[in-house]
Amino acid sequence: MSSPVRIALDAMGGDHGPESTIPGAALALQENPQVGFLIFGDEIILKPLLDKYPALKAASVLYHTDKTVRGDEKPSIALRSSKGSSMRMAVEAVQDGRASAVVSAGNTGALMALAKLVLKPLPGVHRPALASVLPSFEGETVMLDLGANVLVDAENLVQFAVLGATFARIYKNIEMPSVGLLNVGSEDMKGPDHVRQAAKILSRIDFSGRYYGFVEGNDITNGTVDVVVSDGYAGNIALKTAEGVGKLTRHYFKKFIKSDPFALVGGLLAFFALRRFRDRLDPRRYNGGVFLGLNGVCIKSHGGCDALAFSSAVKLAVGLAEQDYIGTVAHDINHLMTQESFHSQDSL
Amino acid sequence: MSSPVRIALDAMGGDHGPESTIPGAALALQENPQVGFLIFGDEIILKPLLDKYPALKAASVLYHTDKTVRGDEKPSIALRSSKGSSMRMAVEAVQDGRASAVVSAGNTGALMALAKLVLKPLPGVHRPALASVLPSFEGETVMLDLGANVLVDAENLVQFAVLGATFARIYKNIEMPSVGLLNVGSEDMKGPDHVRQAAKILSRIDFSGRYYGFVEGNDITNGTVDVVVSDGYAGNIALKTAEGVGKLTRHYFKKFIKSDPFALVGGLLAFFALRRFRDRLDPRRYNGGVFLGLNGVCIKSHGGCDALAFSSAVKLAVGLAEQDYIGTVAHDINHLMTQESFHSQDSL
User: Fold this and answer.
1) Same domain, A186 and A300
2) Which of A111, A325, B95, B259 gets the highest tally of CB atoms within 10 A of its CB?
3) What pTM value is reported for the model?
4) Which residues make beta-bridge pairs with A141?
C-alpha cells in the first residue's frame, strides 16, 4: 500500500483567490476523504475561511506566506521575485516530496516556468507540455499541447504523444489509447513538415498507445481518438476557440429563451434536462491543465475558476498522484528514448 | 450603372450535387431577382430539375458537360484531368468575363488549384487565402486563412490582413474594419516569429483597416475585431474545432431534452425561440468560403451543403460581384505594394 496522497495548494492564485480555492479543496475532499492538503498562503485570510470548512481544516497543514505571484506579471519577472511566494512554496512541496501534486490557479506562464525550474523535466523529456481533457461524443478527449510550446519539432510532437497516451491510460483507464496528430486534412501529404515527420516516427515506434493518423479540429469533439496532439500554437487556438463557441451558444440560447414568454415557461419545464445538458458540457467540469513531462504533478486551474471548477483541478491532481502517473510516464519516456527508430530522421 | 451580375455555377459539385445546387440557386434568385446564372453540368440531370424552378430556368443559361471533378480526388490529379469538367468550365466563365463570380461545392483542393491556375492571383498577391464569415456576439467576424496556406511568412499575413479588411469593408459595409492577428496571447513577445513580424509591419503600414493587435481563439466569437488573420494551419483547425463544438452542443441538447417528457413539452413551448436560436448560429447561414486574392470571385460552398446552405454561398458571390470586390482589392493591394514600410524587414 502506498501512503495517502497529499496535495499542495497555492491558495492565493486565481482571480478569486482563497474564495475559490478553499471551498474548491473542501469540495474535492468530500469525494476523496483519504487526501491530505498542504495549503500555502496568507493565514490572516485563510484561517477564518478554513474555520468554515472543518473537514478540510482537519485534513490540512497551513503554511503561511504573505507573498504572492501577481496574475498579470511577465513570467520572467514573476520567476525572479517568486521566492517565498505561495505558488513557489507549493511547487517546492512537490519537489521535496512533502506533496504528490501541486494545484494553482495563478499566472500560467509563471507557474510553467517555476514548475520547470523547480520540478525539472523528466529524464529524456525535451519540452514539457500542457494537457487538458475536453468533452466529446464518445466521452472525453485528452489534448496537448495547449500553449506551453509555440514552436515544436517532430520529436517534440512524438514525445507529446507518449506523454498524452500515458495520461489517457491512467485518466481514462484504457489499455492502448488511440493518438491522432492535429492537422488540416487526413491525407499523408497534408500539413507542415514537422507534423508529417512526427506521423512517420509514430507509425514505427513502440509506445503504450496506438497511432491513428491525422485528425482535424472537429475530431476533438467527435471523439475520433483518445489523445489529440499538436503544437502549442494550434492547440491553444483550438482550445480558446472552443471556449468562445461555448460562450456564444449559451449567450444566444438565454437571449432567445428570455425574449419569448412561452419559451420561458418551456425553459422551466425543461429545467432538469437543461441542467443535465449544462453539466455535461460545463467547462468547470473540465477545468485543470496538466503540465506533462515534469518530475512531479503540476496542475494549472483556470484563473477565473469558482469553487466547483477548482475542485475539478484538485480531483485531477489526486487521480494522477494516486495512480503514480510520474512513475509510469518516466518508464514510458525511457522506453521511447531507447528506441533507435525514434531518433533516426528520414527525409519526407 | 454596371451591367447585371451573372454567377457561374458548378451544378455538379458537392455531396448532393444538383439536388442542392439547383434549389439553392433558386432560393438565392428569390432574394436577388436581378441576377443571371450560367449553369454548368449534365443536362440530362439538370433539365428536369430546372423545370421545377421556372424563375431560375428563365434567368439561366445551361452549359452541358457530363464531366465532373470527383470529390475525393487529389487536387494535382483532378487538375490534370479537369478540362471540360463542370467545375473548370464554371471557373473559365469568370476568367473570360461571361460571369462575375463562380460558386462550387466540389473538391476544395481542386477548386483552389483550378482557380489559381485559371483566374490567376491579382498583381502583387503572393498567396491567395480562403476566408469565411463566422457568427459573433457583435454580429459577424471575417476570418482567414482557413486552410489554403499551411506555411506563411510575415508578408503573407500582412497581405491576408489587407485582403480581409477590403472584404469586411464591402461585406460588412464598414469604413475602417479592425484587424487582429490570431495568437496565443495578447502580449508583444508572444507567438511565432512570423506572427510578431507581421504585427510590426501592420502597425506601420497604411491600409484600409485598423490594426488592433493580437487576438486569441475566443476573440473570433467575441467579435473583438472585424477580421481575424492567421496562417491556414491554425485557421483551419480553429474553424473545424468551432464546427465540432457546435455539433456536440446540438447533439447533447437534443439528447437531454428528448430524455425527459417535461422537457419535451417545454421544447414545444419554446419552439419559435429555439428556431430563432438555431437560425442565429446555423452553420448554413455562414456557408461559403471565398478565395481572396484572385483576379475573380470564387466561392467554395461546403461539400455537404443543402439548398439553404448553397444559397448562402451564392448570395455571398452576388454581394461581392455587385460591389466590385475585385476592383477594390486590386487597388488596395497595389497601394500596399508601393509602401516601402511593407517590404523593409527588421529583426525582432
Assistant:
1) no
2) A111
3) 0.89
4) A134
